[in-house]
Amino acid sequence: MKIAALVSGGKDSVFAVQKMIEDGHEIVCFVCLVPENKESYMFHSVNTDLVQLMADAADIPLISQSTSGIKEEELNEMKAALSDAVSIYGAKGVCSGAIESEYQRSRVQNICDSLNIASFSPLWKADPISLLTEMIDSGMEIRFAAVAADGLGEAWLGRPLNRQALADLIKLHQTKYLHIAGEGGEYETAVLDASFFKKKINPVKTNSRWYGNRGFYDILEAELIPKNEMKEMNKINE
């Protein structure tokens, strides 16, 4: 089926795309909603400008739509963007990276129903530890782009989400009750590589901002590098 993928730039939406491709679907476009209100109920707001690079890396067209970020009003803006995906790219369905948020999943479903297209949530109710392990093992390169929880200090900004980071998240879940997948807003991520990317995103200039109990990792400049060239660069740096 031809699928429009709701992509925020974070791990969940990108991995949802990967799962849909593995299931035999064709991703005809990315759809990114960029909220003006950073406290949006629906949409990720950290490093959304990277989504264009992700689309280029995957060789998939992008529909980018700014939204007010105002609760419920932003749903009309998402509907307009998904309507474009249907009319321009022939999308017959939409996928999202929802894991536990019924608020997000149900609203995407309602919009899809109104457009007479299918809605897919391939990560829905997945076990967080198993899900993050699968992401890591698939070769995704993920960085922590924002943190806002007890136990997640400044050192987490820009840190790779790898097996050691997952082990640390599990410990924080046990002691601080942090959600391992970040479903409570404890952290946000940025994806630099995935199995379906034809090129990898290489950060050139970054900046970390820390505000005492929360912080952000900004990728200010980045470039796309063919994966074979990146392997050669890594060998040189070893």
Automatic annotation (TrEMBL):
GO BP annotation list: protein histidyl modification to diphthamide
Pfam families in the cross-refs: Diphthami_syn_2 (PF01902)
InterPro entries xref list: Diphthami_syn_dom, DPH6/MJ0570, MJ0570_ATP-bd, Rossmann-like_a/b/a_fold
Gene3D superfamilies: HUPs, putative n-type atp pyrophosphatase, domain 2
Keyword Nucleotide-binding among record annotations: yes
The UniProt record lists the keyword ATP-binding: yes
Domain Diphthamide synthase: 1-221
NCBIfam families linked: arCOG00187 (TIGR03679), MJ0570_dom (TIGR00290)
PANTHER family referenced in this protein's UniProt entry, alphabetically: DIPHTHINE--AMMONIA LIGASE, DOMAIN OF UNKNOWN FUNCTION 71 DUF71 -CONTAINING PROTEIN
Protein's recorded name: ABC transporter with metal-binding/Fe-S-binding domain ATP-binding protein
